[in-house]
TrEMBL record:
Keywords: Carbohydrate metabolism, Glycosyltransferase, Pyridoxal phosphate, Transferase
Organism this protein belongs to: Nostocoides veronense
NCBIfam families: P_ylase
Protein name in UniProt: Alpha-1,4 glucan phosphorylase
Listed cofactors: pyridoxal 5'-phosphate
Highest taxon of the lineage: Bacteria
Its biological purpose: Phosphorylase is an important allosteric enzyme in carbohydrate metabolism. Enzymes from different sources differ in their regulatory mechanisms and in their natural substrates. However, all known phosphorylases share catalytic and structural properties. Allosteric enzyme that catalyzes the rate-limiting step in glycogen catabolism, the phosphorolytic cleavage of glycogen to produce glucose-1-phosphate, and plays a central role in maintaining cellular and organismal glucose homeostasis.
Protein EC: 2.4.1.1
Record carries keyword Glycosyltransferase: yes
Xref: Pfam families: Phosphorylase
Protein family: Belongs to the glycogen phosphorylase family.
InterPro entries attached to this UniProt entry: Glycg_phsphrylas (IPR011833), Glyco_trans_35 (IPR000811), Pyridoxal_P_attach_site (IPR035090)
Class in the EC hierarchy, top level: transferase
Length: 819
C-alpha cells in the first residue's frame, strides 16, 4: 500500500465530470455519444470507487502506523444490496454526481436501476454481516470482513403457474466495478491426503499433512465506506482457482485421479451460494467452501495483515476472529494446525492461544439448523483437522470430568463428537469450547441458548455467555431507503441521527404535534406511491390505493408461519363472501408477501404456491374488490426491501415464540414507522418493551406456554374442530376454491396443518385474528395511529447496528476505535 500522500479526486461537479468521462473513455473505451446504459453505470461506479480508494488507502496507511487489535469477521454470507447509493451517501457525493451526470445528459436514477445487487447471502444472517461492517467503518473500528466471492449468489426467484422456479443469479455478468482483484496474490489451500509423523532437527516429534489436492485462493477486495467520516474498511472475498503445480502432481503420478479431480473441481468451490437457510445438507462442497475461505482468511491475516515481526504468542492482542454462526468454525482447528505444524508450538500452548482468538455468535434455535459434519467426511477432506479436533475434545472432556466428576452422561452430551445418527463433529460445541465468548442475537434468544440449547456449557462457563441484540444500519435502511422520512427527521431534529440513532428520541415530543403527524402521514403516502410505481414497473402489479399496507417479507419457513398470515386473509375473505361480514365494515387491506423458499424445501414451496393461488382468486373476486388484495412480487431481495419497508403500515413478525432468534426486518419496519403485529419472540420482545404495549400488537403463546403445550401433546385438530371461523377458512382452501377445484394441489399444506402443525399455527390462530381486529380498530383512528407510528420511530434507535457493534466491542472484542 502507498505510504505517501494519496490524491483524492476533487469534490466538485467539474472534477466529477472529468473523472466520469475519463472512466467512460479510457475505462470502458467508449465515447459518451456511443455509450450504453451499462457503460455509463460502470463508469459511474468506477468514478465513485475512485473517491473511495483514496480514503481506503489513507485508512490502511493510518492503521499501519500503530500496532492494534483488529476484528476478522468470518462470514460465509454477506447480503450487501446495491452499492452505488451507499457509496455516494458515504462520500457525500450524491448531489455532485447528480449534477455532473445531468451535464452529460444522463439521469442518475436510470443508472441506479442498472446495478445488479450482490446477493451473496440467504437472509438475516448475511444481511446482518453487511450491516455490521457498515457500522464498523462508520465507527472507525479496525475490521476486515472475510468471506466467499460466490460467482452465483442467491437464486433469482420467478413464478411459473404460481410455483417457484429458480434462475441462476449471474450477478457479475455485466461487470464487477466494485471489486479489486489481486490475481497475483495466491493463497494455497490444501485438501485430502494423509498425515505423517516425523522427527524434527531438534529431535521432537512433529506431524505434517501431505495433501491430496490443492486450490488457490484469489483475493478480491471491496471497499466498505464509513458514513461521511473519511474511513473506508475492507471486505475481502475469496475466489477459488486451480493450482499451476497441478502438472507436477501428474508427473509425480502417485494419485493421478485425485490430481485431475482437483483441476476439474477446484473452481467449483466458489461457484455458488448454497440456498439452504437453516437446514444444513451436509454436502461435501459446502465443507470445502467453509474451509477454503477460512484458511485463506487466517493465512491472509498471518502473512499480510499483522506486523511482520509479530510473535504468534501475542496473537490474542492482535486479532479476534468473530464466527458468524458455525459456518467458519473449521477455522479453530486450522489456527491450531498452523500454530503447531508451521510455527512449532506444542499443543497446550497452541490451544491456549487459539482459545483467545475466537468468539462465536449463534443465530438459531432450531435443532435441525445446528451444523454437524460426519467424521468420515472430515477424515477424508481434512485429516489433520480431524486429528486436532480429537485432541481438543480429549482435553476438553477432561475439563468436564474435573468440573463434574462421575457425570459421564454429561460428558457424552457435551462431547464435540456425537454418535447419532452417525459419528460426527458438532460444530456448535467446537465453537463454544474454543471461544472467548458465545453470544445470542436477542435477549430471549441468548436466554434460551443458556437455558436450553447450550445449557451444559453455560453451567460450566457461565461468564462465557452473553447477549448482543442485533441491529440494522440506519444509513441504508432509513437514510437511503426512506429519503422522505429522513428529510422530515432532519428538518425536525437536525442531521446527527444518521450516525447517532439514539437521537431519534428527540422526535418523541412531536408525536403530540398535529402538524408533524400530518407531515408524517404525507411521508407514508409518498412512500406508498413510490412502491406502487415500483411494483407496477417491476412486477406488473396494480396495487390498490388507500389500503392499510400489511407486509410480511422474509425467507419462507414453517416456523415463521406465512400460513398463519394466509389463514387470516382467507378468514377475512370467507367472512365477506359467505355474507357473515358486511364488506362495508372491513378495513381495506393489501397484504404484500415476499419470500424465497430453499429449492429443496417442499413445504415452503407448496406454501408459495398456496399464497399465489389464494392471491389470484381474492384479487379477481368482485365481491372483495377495493377491500382485500394480496401482492406477492417474486424475488424479494435487499433492493425491494428498501422500497417496500418505508411504505408499510403493519409489520408481520409472527414466528412461533422461541423459534426466531432475533429477526432484523422487524427492526427496519419499526424504524420506518410501521406498527408491529407480533409474537413474544426474538427481538420483538425488545421492540415491544421500547415502544410500549400500546404501540405494538402482541398475540400468541409465549415460549413457556409453547413448551408446556408441546410437552402435554399438541393436537391441531382440536383447534380445527372447536373454532368455526378457522374451520371454514381451512375448508374453503381444502375445497379447491383457490385451485380451480384441485384439492390435491393444497393437500400438502392442509394435511400438515391438521395433522402435524409443528409450529402451532392453529393454536395461535384465534389470538392472531383478535389482534388483527385490534389493528383495524386502531387504524380507523388515523391520528392515534400516526402517534403510535411516530413513537415507533422515536423509540427504536436502540436497533442501530452501531449500538450492536459498541456492544461487541465492549463485551467481546475489546478493540479500540478511532486512530
Ligand atoms: C444451511 C445451514 C444454515 C444454518 C443456519 C444456514 C443458515 C443458518 C442461519 C443461522 C439462519 C439465519 O440466517 N439465522 C437468522 O439470523 C438472523 C441474524 O442474527 C436472525 O435475525 C434470525 O432470527 C435468524 O433466523
Amino acid at each position: 500500500l502507498a505510504s505517501g500522500p494519496v490524491s483524492t479526486p476533487p469534490h466538485t461537479v467539474d472534477g466529477f465530470v472529468k473523472e466520469f468521462l475519463r472512466e467512460l473513455n479510457y475505462g470502458q473505451g467508449v465515447p459518451l455519444s456511443r455509450s450504453s446504459l451499462n457503460d455509463q453505470y460502470l463508469a459511474l461506479a468506477r468514478t465513485v470507487r475512485g473517491y473511495l480508494t483514496a480514503r481506503w488507502l489513507q485508512t490502511a496507511t493510518r492503521r499501519r502506523q500503530k500496532p492494534h487489535k483488529m476484528v476478522g469477521y468470518l462470514s460465509a454470507e454477506y447480503l450487501l444490496g446495491r452499492q452505488l447509493d451507499n457509496a455516494l451517501l458515504a462520500t457525500d457525493l450524491t448531489a455532485i454526481a447528480d449534477e455532473a451526470l445531468k451535464q452529460c445528459g444522463i439521469d442518475l436514477d436510470a443508472l441506479r436501476q442498472a446495478e445488479i445487487e450482490p446477493g451473496l447471502g440467504n437472509g438475516g444472517l448475511g444481511r446482518l454481516a453487511a450491516c455490521f461492517i457498515d457500522s464498523l467503518a462508520t465507527m472507525d473500528a479496525p475490521c476486515v470482513g472475510y468471506g466467499l466471492r460466490y460467482e452465483y449468489g442467491i437464486f433469482k426467484q420467478t413464478f411459473v403457474d404460481g410455483r417457484q422456479v429458480e434462475v441462476p443469479d449471474n450477478w457479475l455478468s455485466m461487470g464487477g466495478p466494485w471489486e479489486i482483484p489481486h490475481p497475483e496474490m495466491e493463497v494455497p489451500v490444501h485438501f485430502g491426503g494423509h498425515t505423517e509423523r516425523y522427527v524434527g532437527e531438534d529431535g521432537r516429534e512433529r506431524t505434517r499433512w501431505i495433501s491430496g489436492w490443492d486450490v488457490l485462493g484469489i483475493r478480491y477486495n471491496y471497499m466498505v465506506p464509513g458514513y461521511q467520516n473519511g474511513v473506508v474498511n475492507t471486505l475481502r472475498l475469496w475466489r477459488a482457482r486451480a493450482t499451476r503445480a497441478f502438472d507436477l502432481h501428474i508427473f509425480n503420478a502417485g494419485d493421478y485421479a485425485e490430481a485431475v479431480r482437483s483441476q476439474t473441481f477446484a473452481e467449483n468451490i466458489s461457484k455458488v451460494l448454497y440456498p439452504e437457510d437453516s437446514t444444513p445438507q451436509g454436502k461435501e462442497l459446502r465443507l470445502q467452501q467453509q474451509y477454503f475461505f477460512v484458511a485463506c482468511s487466517i493465512y491472509d491475516f498471518l502473512k499480510h495483515t499483522q506486523p511482520t515481526d509479530l510473535d504468534v504468542r501475542d496473537l490474542p492482542e492482535r486479532i479476534i476472529f468473530q464466527l458468524n454462526d458455525t459456518h467458519p468454525v473449521i477455522g479453530i482447528p486450522e489456527l491450531m494446525r498452523l500454530l503447531m505444524d508451521d510455527y512449532d508450538l506444542p499443543f497446550d500452548e497452541a490451544w491456549a492461544i487459539t482459545r483467545q482468538c475466537f468468539a462465536y455468535t449463534c443465530h438459531t434455535l432450531l435443532p435441525e439448523a445446528l451444523e454437524v459434519w460426519s467424521v468420515s467426511l472430515m477424515e477424508r477432506l481434512l485429516p489433520r483437522h480431524m486429528e486436532i479436533i480429537y485432541m481438543i475434545n480429549e482435553v476438553f472432556l477432561e475439563e468436564v470430568r474435573e468440573a463434574f466428576p462421575g457425570d459421564e452422561l454429561r460428558v457424552r452430551r457435551m462431547s464435540i463428537i456425537g454418535d447419532h445418527p452417525e459419528r460426527s463433529v458438532r460444530m456448535a460445541h467446537l465453537a463454544t469450547v474454543a471461544s472467548v465468548k458465545v453470544n445470542g442475537v436477542a435477549e430471549l434468544h441468548s436466554q434460551l441458548l443458556r437455558d436450553k440449547v447450550l445449557s451444559d456449557f453455560s453451567e460450566m462457563w457461565p461468564e462465557k455467555f452473553t447477549n448482543v441484540t442485533n441491529g440494522v444500519t440506519p444509513r441504508r435502511f432509513v437514510r437511503q431507503s426512506n429519503p422522505n422520512l429522513s428529510k422530515l427527521i432532519t428538518d425536525t431534529i437536525g442531521v446527527g441521527w444518521v450516525a447517532n440513532l439514539d437521537r431519534l428520541r428527540e422526535l418523541e415530543v412531536y408525536a403530540e404535534d398535529e402538524e408533524f403527524r400530518a407531515k408524517f402521514r404525507e411521508v407514508k403516502a409518498l412512500n406508498k406511491e413510490r412502491i406502487t410505481a415500483v411494483l407496477k414497473r417491476r412486477d406488473g402489479i396494480e396495487l390498490p390505493q388507500g389500503h392499510l399496507l400489511d407486509v410480511m417479507v422474509k425467507r419462507l419457513h414453517e416456523y415463521k408461519r406465512q400460513t398463519l398470515k394466509l389463514l387470516h386473509m382467507v378468514t377475512l375473505y370467507e367472512g365477506i363472501i359467505s355474507g357473515e361480514v358486511d364488506a362495508a365494515t372491513v378495513t381495506p387491506r393489501t397484504v404484500v408477501f415476499g419470500a424465497k423458499a430453499a429449492p429443496g424445501y417442499r413445504m415452503a414451496k407448496e406454501t408459495i404456491f398456496l399464497i399465489n393461488s389464494v392471491a389470484k382468486v381474492i384479487n379477481n373476486d368482485p365481491r372483495v374488490e377495493g377491500k382485500l388484495f394480496i401482492a406477492f412480487p417474486a424475488n424479494y431481495n435487499v433492493t425491494l426491501a428498501e422500497r417496500l419497508i418505508p411504505a408499510a403500515d403493519l409489520s408481520e413478525q409472527i414466528s412461533l415464540a422461541g423459534k426466531e432468534a432475533s429477526g432484523t426486518g422487524n427492526m427496519k419496519f419499526a424504524l420506518n414507522g410501521a406498527l408491529t403485529i407480533g409474537t413474544d419472540d426474538g427481538a420483538n420482545v425488545e421492540i415491544r418493551q421500547l415502544v410500549g404495549d400500546d404501540n405494538f400488537f402482541l398475540f400468541g403463546m409465549d415460549e413457556p406456554a409453547v413448551a408446556e403445550l408441546q410437552a402435554k401433546g399438541y393436537q391441531p385438530t382440536a383447534y380445527y374442530e372447536s373454532n368455526e371461523r378457522l374451520r371454514r377458512a381451512i375448508n374453503l382452501i381444502d375445497s379447491g376454491h383457490f385451485t380451480d377445484g384441485n384439492r390435491e394441489a393444497v393437500s400438502t399444506v392442509i394435511g400438515d396443518l391438521l395433522y402435524n402443525d409443528r409450529f402451532l399455527v392453529l393454536a395461535d390462530y384465534q389470538s392472531y385474528i383478535d389482534a388483527q381486529a385490534k389493528v383495524e380498530a386502531a387504524y380507523a383512528d388515523q391520528e392515534a395511529w400516526s402517534r403510535s407510528a411516530i413513537l415507533n420511530v422515536a423509540r427504536t434507535g436502540f436497533f442501530s447496528s452501531d449500538r450492536s457493534m459498541r456492544d461487541y466491542i465492549d463485551r467481546i472484542w475489546h478493540i479500540k476505535t478511532g486512530s
